[in-house]
Structures are given as structure tokens and as C-alpha cells.
Design brief:
50% of the residues lie in helices and 16% in strands. By secondary structure, it is an alpha/beta fold. A hairpin with a 2-residue loop joins strand 2 and strand 3. Helix 1 (10-28) packs antiparallel against helix 2 (34-53) and helix 6 (134-150) runs parallel beside helix 8. The chain is globular.
Length: 318
């Protein structure tokens, strides 16, 4: 398998390349180089651990956008059984950027929503790179009300750079659709567990993430605007994106200290892209633990807790 390495991972890539080359040599001849391979593997693991223990905010942005990182449909496929997708907003059209449906999470019926970026060019185009249109957010509202009607907990998996900014989306009421989706998140009387699995971009993310419990993967990001967008406004140049990433406090660690997210879910060493199945399982365990606590509460308490949680935001400082 050819792995995609980020710029700051080049020293790791060089070591792992040497390991692969030595492995090929050991299988084609009499040469026994197991000791050298073992030494290089130890060095690569140590360098990987050191690198990922001190990532800058901009490097975390790059990891959150990694093309091999598991996407929403990977988490649904790994955690939800008997999944039945539900489509359409019953008003205009189906939006493939926001996926939703009913299934079973560890034996319990749930409603699942999420933003899907797509894993290759064809699927990225199909899902519009995870950027929802108004009909997608109206579909999300419809499905959340469906969950409330039948007493189903809601699980959301968020990975989007933001809502689609096109003129056609604005003409169909993008801002109103996002606001109504947030309103519905805060109003339903069933448990809502949200997970930021990659990028959590602006209103397009919070429209699905205003939950009782908000989980965030260790190397995910969550921000009111992308670093590039922030840099283009403040510095008139996207070249200052690393500076903007520092200022935005968009890492999971900063956001937990600020009370924006409730729990950071650890990723496999080197990021979720290196061990997708392990990342899916770890998030599933965190979702189950959060859900078990919420299932003990009645609907009115769930709604009140959710509203108070978001009203209290902004009261902490780093």
C-alpha cells in the first residue's frame, strides 16, 4: 500500500522507505537483514511518536484533512449495523454531502447523521467535498424530528470544511437552513452525541454538532472559519494560514480547555489514517460511554442540559 505522507512527515517517510527496500531485498536473496530492519523500525516508531507528540496547530489541520483519514461512511460502516439510508428534505432535493439513516449501534436503534467528504475524486464530487447545501440541513432537521418521534438517540459524525458557499445555496436559504438545524439540535428530546472526526468547519459543522455530548478526535479541528479564510481576511494572504491556525484555538486540546468539546478521543499513533479500524473502534467505545450516561435522563432534562451547555460557552479562558 502506498501511503500519503504530509510535509512534516518526510523524515518518517524516508525511514519507512528504507525499511520497505530492505524487506524486498530480504525476500529476493540469501541476505539476512532482520536486525537492521528491526533497528530502523524502532527508529521510525520513536520518530513518529516524537513528531505526533508536538504537532503545531497548522500540522493538526493537515492531519485532520489527510486524504486517507476515515470518513463519515467509514464510521457508519464500522459501527452501525442494519443501516438504512434516508434521503431528501421533502421540499427541494437530496443532498449527498449530508448522509443520514436509521440503524443499530451495538444493539440499540439509533438515527445517524454525518457529513461525508468522499474518499476518491469520483466520490468527492458526488458528496460535494462534504459541503452541505440547504436541502442537506433541512434533511437533517427532518431526520432529527423523526428520531424524536420514535425515541431514537441521534449520533452525528462531522467532517466538513463548512457549508457550500455557492450562490445557488444562498438563494435557497443556506443561513436559515443552518440556523434551523442548530435550533432543532437544541430542541429535540432525545440524546444527541456528536463527534468531530476530521474538520469541523463553521456553521456547517455546528448544525450537526450541538449535542449533549461533543466528542472530538485527538487530531481533528473545529473552528468558526478555516485558517486560510481567516488569513485572507486578517492578513490579506492565505500564506499566513499557520499563524491563523495558532490564533484560532482550533485543536481538540484547546477546545476542551475552553469547554467547547467534552472529551478528546485518542487516535492511533500517527493519526487515524494509519490504523482506521482501530480509530473507528476507539470512537465507538467513546460514543457508547457517552450514550449510556444520557439514556438515563428524560427528554426534558436532555433538552435543558443541551441548551445550558451551549449558553455557558465563552465563560472560560485559556
Amino acid at each position: 500500500m502506498i501511503r500519503h505522507f504530509l510535509d512534516f512527515e518526510r523524515p518518517i517517510a524516508e525511514l519507512e522507505g528504507k525499511i520497505e527496500e530492505l524487506r524486498r531485498l530480504s525476500t529476493t536473496g540469501e541476505l539476512n537483514i532482520a536486525d537492521e530492519i528491526g533497528r530502523l523500525q524502532s527508529s521510525a516508531a520513536r520518530l513518529l511518536r516524537q513528531t505526533y507528540s508536538r504537532l503545531t496547530p497548522w500540522q493538526k489541520v493537515q492531519v485532520a484533512r489527510h486524504p486517507e483519514r476515515p470518513h463519515c461512511l467509514d464510521y457508519i460502516g464500522g459501527l452501525i449495523t442494519d443501516f438504512v439510508p434516508l434521503a431528501g428534505d421533502r421540499a427541494f432535493a437530496e443532498d449527498a454531502a449530508i448522509v443520514g439513516g436509521i440503524g443499530r449501534f451495538r444493539g440499540r436503534s439509533v438515527l445517524v447523521l454525518g457529513t461525508e467528504k468522499g474518499a476518491d475524486t469520483e466520490r468527492r464530487l458526488k458528496h460535494n467535498f462534504g459541503m452541505g447545501r440547504p436541502e442537506g440541513y433541512r434533511k437533517a432537521r427532518r431526520l432529527m424530528r423523526l428520531a424524536e418521534r420514535f425515541g431514537l438517540p441521534v449520533l452525528t459524525f462531522v467532517d466538513t470544511a463548512g457549508a457550500y458557499p455557492g450562490v445557488d445555496a444562498e438563494a435557497r436559504g443556506q443561513a436559515e437552513a443552518i440556523a434551523r438545524a442548530i435550533e432543532t439540535c437544541l430542541d429535540i428530546k432525545v440524546p444527541l452525541v456528536a463527534a468531530i472526526i476530521g474538520e469541523g468547519g463553521s456553521g456547517g459543522a455546528i448544525a450537526l454538532a450541538a449535542g449533549n455530548t461533543v466528542l472530538m478526535l485527538e487530531h481533528a479541528i473545529y473552528s468558526v472559519i478555516s485558517p486560510e479564510g481567516c488569513a485572507s481576511i486578517l492578513w490579506r494572504s492565505a500564506e499566513h494560514a499557520p499563524d491563523a491556525a495558532d490564533a484560532l484555538r482550533l485543536t481538540a486540546q484547546d477546545l476542551q480547555r475552553l469547554g467547547i468539546v467534552d472529551r478528546i478521543v485518542a487516535e492511533p499513533l500517527g493519526g487515524a489514517q494509519r490504523a482506521p479500524k482501530e480509530a473507528v473502534e476507539q470512537l465507538g467505545q467513546a460514543v457508547e460511554e457517552a450514550l449510556q450516561r444520557l439514556l438515563a435522563l428524560d427528554g426534558s432534562t436532555l433538552r435543558l442540559q443541551r441548551r445550558e451547555k451551549f449558553l455557558a460557552m465563552g465563560g472560560r479562558s485559556l
